[in-house]
Amino acid sequence: MTVSRRAVLGGSLAAAAVSGVPAVSASATSAGSPSLTNLAHLDYLGDAVSPPSAAGHSTYGSGPVGVLWTYADRRDDGSYARIGGGTFDPSTNTYGQGAYNADDLARAAVVYLRHYSAMGDAHSRQAAYGLLRGLTFLQTTDGVNAGNVVLWMQPDGTLNPSADPVELPDPSDSAASYWLARTVWALGEGYAVFRSVDRRFAAFLRARLELAIAALERQVLVHYGQWNVVDGRRVPAWLIVAGADATSEAVLGLAAYVGSDGRSARARRALERFAEAVAAMGAGDTRTWPFRALLPWGESISDWHAWGAQMSSALAAASAVLRSPRLLGPALGDTAGFTPLLMTAGGPDNGWLPAPIDRTQIAYGVDARLQALLGVAEVADRPGLRQVAAFVAAWYFGANPAGAPMYDPATGRTYDGISGEGVINRNSGAESTIHGLLSMLALDANPSLAKQARTLGPAPRTLAGLHTVEAEAATLSAGATIVTPQSPWTGESQWSNNSYVAFTSGSTATWTLPSSDQPQLALPVIDVVPDREAGRTTWSSNNRVLGSLNHGTGGPQGESAAPGALLPRTLPRVLPPGATQLTATAAPLAGTSASGASSAAGRRVDAVLLLPLISKLQLGTTALLSSADTHPRSYKVTRATSRRSVVTAYDSSGKLKSRFTTTAKTFSAPVLPGGFTVVL
């Protein structure tokens, strides 16, 4: 369960039921190939409880409701123990947070709903029914918080509105939340399925969904048309918990609901307005950070994370239902522009803040990339995005920093993540299991893609993409100093490697650069402040000036947690191939004394991002090339032996522009401006 923008909770060590999940025979997909989707571990996480009566809470029918344990810790013998969140008190059989949570009940229901829709599986239909009953019991039905959702439930079904540690909002049903957004997702998909198989239950889901939409109207959509300012950028004020990530998950449910039954004007209006807000979060361009990504957080222009980044999937779904092609523009930028660059930089990291700092990778982030590529490919008619999806999906089968599989088809387990150092967390909690299975369902629906991903997974992996040079790695002159702040987190971004270099007038920093045979963009990450007196730094390489950066061009702070923003700024001139040095010089400031002192704050540099004009991810003999250039380029490909190679080149919107085959050992692959090329 992801609970904050900066960390994903791990399991506690509290004891609970222990099990080794038996293997389940793989079923066959409609294409006749073995199914990757195995529900065994998700079934094991499931449970049933009879919640005690709680004012303002009820559900459909009678009898126990379906629930899902939050975490599953791996034991030394290879078995898994189901546990809850927070400190366990054995005397009361309670957790500081709870055993089950609305976030995971909602998303697990989506897994079972999609599996039932694909396979007609009666068990999945019943499991979805039980979880939706459990989820709706968590929803508050009357009073000032009607429509909102309590996050946590204890092992006996008792609600825990105020968790320890505290989570916001507190109580958890006192305002809009991630779990309200995910409840909308599950109720929307639930209604779309049950309306044709159980009309009474579907009517109940519809009523609860309308209740949730009403809560969003009075708490979030009341701000429709208003714009916040975040360090000078206009950001929509009607995002759920200020997040395009949370909002996108609600959009997925609203699109399913409106697409299956368009009678609700309230739901259509909410869908239109939330999709508009998500689309407004696209930023950057081919050469400018964040390189056409959709930003997830409406209170920072310096933060991108892979987990929960369902924005492109949501825009594709909304575009199809609303028949609004304009929503696809930002989604195409995110999938055809940013995602190939992300993959060549190492994959779906937990945090570019703005430097790639949190290199942890989890299924929640991988699945979001995969679903986005497949959704946009279908709605926008961009089949080339499916080729990029194969590189993303290969993560589950070994194409990742650990070089090992993260999903086990024999048990249905997806491990809880990979650290930036390539260490696998072999716990297998609800969130990882859920998103691994959502990915497997998508792959089962696309057998040729699944086959390619499984082939690419074990292949040798090489990267030649964006990388970071830390500011403190430089040789510093007098007047330039390394500063370690009390906390690396600024409230909206994070200092890379927990430190930065502060410059005074005339001081310099010189970096020795890693060798590159490609021209590279240099993007110093600087603290851009709203202060015209902050001054400039001039950047040069081997006595060639690359450009000058003004550190004082920040906009009004607005809703941002801190004045100024850490931002990568692209230097106008590129680093030539073979460049060995980069130097920053702080220009003199007006009012500087003879000794070099100045009343202005020091100019702060966090790091330097280096981005090849053509970056590459290679898995075995298959390569993904991504362009950060404004002109067409050719990339030299050399094979060890003569073999048939297929080269497909796509433009910046993912349109196919050229395709050829060759048996030459050495050939040139075209890469279009801001586009991507796949070499098979």
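(the above was protein one; protein two follows)
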Amino acid sequence: MKRKSFIALIACLTTFISNAFAGTIRSYENLDAGWNFHFSYDCRKKPVLQQVTLPHTWNATDVFSGQLQYYRGAGIYNRSLAYNPAWKDKRVFLYFEGANSVADVLVNNKFVTEHKGGYTAFCTEITSYLIPGSDNALTVQVSNAPSMEVLPLSGDFNVFGGLHRSVWLIVTNKNCITPLDYASPGVYITPATVSTTQATVDVQTKLSLPLSGHKLEARTVIRDAANKTVASMQTLINNGDSAVQQQFKIDNPHLWNGRQDPYLYQVSVQLYQDDQLADEMVQPLGLRTFKVDASTGFILNGKHLDLHGFGMHEDVKDRGSALLPSDHKGEMALIMESGANAMRLTHYPHGNYFYQLADTSGIIVWTEIPLVGPGGYTGTGFINSPALKAHARQLLTEMIRQQYNHPSILFWGLFNELKLNYDDPRPFLTDLQALAKKEDPSRIITCATFLDTDYFNTVSDVIAWNKYYGWYGGSFSDIGTWADDMHRQFPTKPIAVSEYGAGANILQHQETMKAPSADGNFHPEEWQTAYHEANWAALNARPFVWGKFVWALADFSSAIRTEGNVDGLNDKGLVTYDHKIKKDAFYFYKANWSKEPMLYLAEKRANERTMASTTVKAYTNLTKATLYVNGKNIGTVSRDSIGRVIWPQVALQAGKNTLLVKAAGNGATLEDGCTWILNTPATINHSSTK
């Protein structure tokens, strides 16, 4: 989506929401447009200003400048806010979806609040700071400078500075459902018990009631997808109450069942004051049961479901982490096309819109706080300081409360790749686990380690490992041996693979498999494909591995990387950094995961060949496929257990060769093809193999 189109869409949505709520209940105004930006080091009387529209980051392109040290400092955002006379006797809040990493907010040059953490939202009331009848100045200074008090302390990804998510103005009546409970919706919906015959749903609504002496009532309605009321309740609120608790019964509930049937109810909580509607909050409700068994894996609504999908950063070429709704939709379209049913959102909470897409698409989500260790690099992800620990607790509380009502989220993650060569993080991780269970006893606590020990087995309900056999040393077959060994050592601990992958530059190819150096400049696409074929075959044969998460959905920027012939890029994605080109390995997984009929001829980009007798391979989820080379039928071959159709020792002619594969089944007739050039020794173009 073009940025102008995005602004127009936001304007339309804002007008619709504002008109719908005007004069009665809360209104939302999008504040993404109209900002001036300059770096804080430019403190001249007339600094150089950039007109920007949010979401915005100042690091969208400088991470590829060839410098290891991209700009990590402070920037200042300014805009005016015209006072609306309708705000008289109202309350006005600023809601920031994400400011990376530390934000200081001022209104009319007066300090209002500071928030630490770039990946969770925060909300602050500005009612008393506004000047009626005039334009009011909003100033936000944002810093992504490294700090030992702000997570993440380390990590193989870039920390994009700026107001990289949207900003909203919220206007409510004096008495309202509070937006100030860690920037949550203020409504917490818990499916307490769920079966096919009845569900019990607890609804807690937190309130802000500065005005006393009024009759207050919470009226809550649960509606099904057809907008039919299935449960309702009215509860009187005593003056001075900070919350109201309600419990509902739903007979014969329709369950949220992942991709198969992502059915959603809607919960509307209305606050009435003296029998007049004062505020309303609407939230999704998905009814489901879930657990993980150490022997049989993940179980959703009483049935085994093999969880498989990707890890993913918020990072797109030319935008960094300042993603538009169209970017999130594009990511979800790729996920749905692949056939994935789960996602690990790494290594921090992602924007709220993606969770909404996961709810409606049936994608099961693991989301985590940015307590990120260095993995194989130097440094630490944790120090035993009171400030850092308080910050981690804050982020965990914010993540859980802000995303509490999303039925897609089944796993809260505590950390990624912490090590033990600095302060031991395990006592604090035990504290975090207790906090997560206190905030949300219903969900599963997980973590991602890369240490093949039991060091972290007690700090979470389930555990997962990041493993790269066949890329960072070892061989493809090691993944199966490792999984069996972990299962044998820890038979009662549910285990998963939170990351596995290999790099690939789509411009680099090889005809004969030879292991490249992960740190080198040659990352042939064919090695990535072979890596995933072997690793998936091993993991898929082991149902006790409750989750298999490919690293990663798409290439992403990392300033410390100098490999694959592109500096500053982690190329383990199955889609290119611009999210436009799917690598061969993407289609391999599509052949294994997707139910939509598909056929893909592999190695199209490796179109300059040197071997007159070669192997041709296609991926399909149909039973068999036929290959034609230069119009000649080479033969029909059945699909193997991992979606491959392979024709060995296919003869090519010198010069141009036209390849075509065809397959039919499940009501579909499919074909795919490409052209290969067989070069003689005197005419070989070596550029494609360097």
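Reviewer note on protein two: The longest strand covers residues 198-208.
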